[in-house]
Amino acid sequence: MGDSLILKLLVVLAISVIVAFVLGRIWKSKTPPPEPSAPRQHDDRAAAPPPVNAPSQQPADIDPALLAERVPHVGYQSHKISDPVTGLPVPLFLFYPTHHRPERLRVGPFQFEAAEGGKPDPIRGVVLVSHGAASSGMAHHPLARYLARRGYLVVAPTHARDNALDPRASGKADTLRGRILTISAALDFVLSHPEFPGLADRPVALIGNSQGTATALALGGAQMDTGRGARHCAEHPDDALCGYPLESLSRIIDQADPRIKALILMAPTAVYFEDEALRNVKVPVLLWQAGKDGILTEPWHAERLARLLPNLAGHEKIAPGGHASFVAPIPFWIDVALPSVLRDPSGFDRAPFQRDQLHPSVAHFLARVLEPARKKEPL
Q1: What are 217-251's pLDDT values in tens digits?
Q2: Burial readout 90-103 (b: 16 or more C-beta within 10 A, e: otherwise)
Q3: CA distances from 61 to 151, 161, 238, 313, 314 (A)
Q4: Which domains does the chain have, with CATH numbers?
């Protein structure tokens, strides 16, 4: 796949999101807020249908007590910080537990229920999110809201120059470094936020999706070599990833953040890291792999990570899922404009998979690996 075709696909995606954003502003300006009502059932609490998207490896036995909701509602705030490399503004989305009643919100193409500006309830832990290339900090809002109702503050930035509205420098060395520093800056922001006191002793985890998994691995202790992807493709041109532009400039980035105590990697890429660098990731890791990933060809990514990471807590595979099956469901009119590798494979529906398998798996992992690491104090 040539650079020109990739650019066209990114332009189509960007135009779709811009249109969605404009329509969202119009919708928000013309639609009055709903009247307060009794709490509604959330998607993740709906009666689960028989599993139709069963993974080839079932997640480990899950203790239902670890998945119990702690609050009935989700709070939502949006802020801006600066990209530490370029100085560009970085939208920052926060989801957290609250008892304030929600309203229907729309951010770009995404609609969800949350109490905008609602007073936070006590926070169990902080979960950072690094989205994939040319994506958005809102790309995992269903998972963020699921975790917020279980007591977590979820912090999701939209990375500068590597998002749906501005993908101009996706994969470049400075952008890869900026991604890493932005996550640490986002953590600094919430730790000093007056509405979230007492976070200093709360455990911190990081979720990465696709390109965001490289961000997560670097923050978890792996030294990144920005030019390794190009060298990998020279040796393994049959990796589907090699159809996309990759940075040839080799720059070593060593920016581990010791505050991060666990990683969740979804549709992970491993091309920026040597074997020894990956062995240096000592924090526990939960790995989610798509069986029909049309962008990352195995055994060079998830399977390589499963072999080299020294503290792998779980490796789950959703056999019929695709590369984008970990991203929030999007409206049909945007989905049809995307290339096939960014849509769900035929016969697969990401929504029930995320609700019934991915979200509980992540929450269980966080409760299991983070809770023993903190002082036992009542929330």
Answers
A1: 999 999 999 999 999 999 999 999 999 999 999 99
A2: bbbbbbbbbebebe
A3: 22, 40, 36, 13, 11
A4: 3-33+74-373 (3.40.50.1820)
